[in-house]
Amino acid sequence: MRHASTYLPAAEIADSVRRGERAAVEVVEEHLATIAEREPEVHAFNALTDAQARMAAELIDRRVAAGEDPGPLAGVPVALKDNLCTAGVPTTCSSRILEGWLPPYDATVVTRLGLAGAIAIGKTNLDEFAMGSSTENSAFGPTHNPHDASRVPGGSSGGSAAAVAAGFAPLALGSDTGGSIRQPAALCGVVGVKPTYGRVSRYGLIAFASSLDQIGPLAPTVADAALLLEVVAGHDPLDSTSVPEPPPSLVAGLDDGVEGLRVGVVAELMGQGVAPDVRRRVEAAAEALAGAGAKVEETSVAALAYGLSAYYLIAPAEASSNLARYDGVRYGLRVDAPTTATMNVATRTAGFGPEVKRRIMLGTYALSAGYYDAYYGKAQKVRTLVIRDFAAAYESFDLLLSPTSPTTAFPLGAKAADPLSMYLSDVCTIPSNLAGDPAVSVPFGTGDDGLPVGVQILAPALAEATMLRAAAVLEDAMLDQAMARAEATP
Fold first, then answer.
1. Overall fold of domain 10-306+381-488
2. Does residue 300 carry a catalytic annotation?
């Protein structure tokens, strides 16, 4: 794999630390300095864990000096989405309802990062309880796109994507319920992976919609995303939905190419609503895959036309159930009132923002007596159709191709007053969550406004290795184009 010369891959940082050529303390201080310079403009973080990061770096340097190997991510700073539990560190989901709560345990992915030698550098901003596509629905204010501070970074993992794009951390973790890793990755010009449902443990991820949520990596390159996924993936007995078999090696096969692979361009995700400049980049990606030896054809996955409607019944219904626990009694915010019932209402009224309240009400209605079959039950039937249509498509194709987001990053506030317009930002990413299949967003050039465009590669369940091979081909194609432009510039 080749890499842009201005970027030092996480694997190279870790190797230099493991060999004693660089100190982990030095790596952490460099990234904290970058954060100090640009964080006031970007607002990627809800909280920095700089003191803990420095202590962890010192420990890694002592282990290296003692001849130990701290792991494949030794000394690499990682930004954590603020819905991943970290023991003793505020974990807020960007919501007032969790004010003052300190988790007593680490999420499994946080534990695995520590065992690999990675250093958690901070908790990143998100749409409240991961509900949004712009990171504007946060009790701590919006995150700004590092490429243009007047634009959104996407959501809900906008803080994690912005942290990587701004150089605050070489790696980040996000969560993806309907596109919340891939859509901000596209808008910020980084790589974002939603693994197969169950590939990465959800233990310690504060739930939005439990049948859809999945943790995954954000990184500047495909190789770094693959390395981070290797570290955090694998069976976890603490998560009953965890896939039992061990994950395959992902980094080792990235250079295997796409010769002979069958790739289908999904017609339903290339039509109305997709900006012409984004569509052109997907078409260029299809040409690049064909040029590398893949057989590329247009295909239809008919049920995807109904994916958005099904998702916005299923996800709010699960959110309504999951968020019932925030009642002012057990943890987080409490607004005192004369009775328990009025305290519950006052706490939830003050603690939840408008978008979370909207989705709780939608979900509660969809689950209510007399409406369950008409709404939630019917949405689950549509989900089954999506799964069946994907399965049929994968009988003819190894991978599918589409835009990640229908547009490039839009201005802050542009869609805040129009929830439906905001929901349409996820029309290309939601189907993979409904099916539980993996997908990756790869930066593939820019739109007419000069902002990043992401191309999405979709794969059948547990086919992350094949998916990432194709992503690496697209990444190399973009590097070839960049080098050609540089050589042509006088």
1. Amidase signature (AS) enzymes (3.90.1300)
2. no
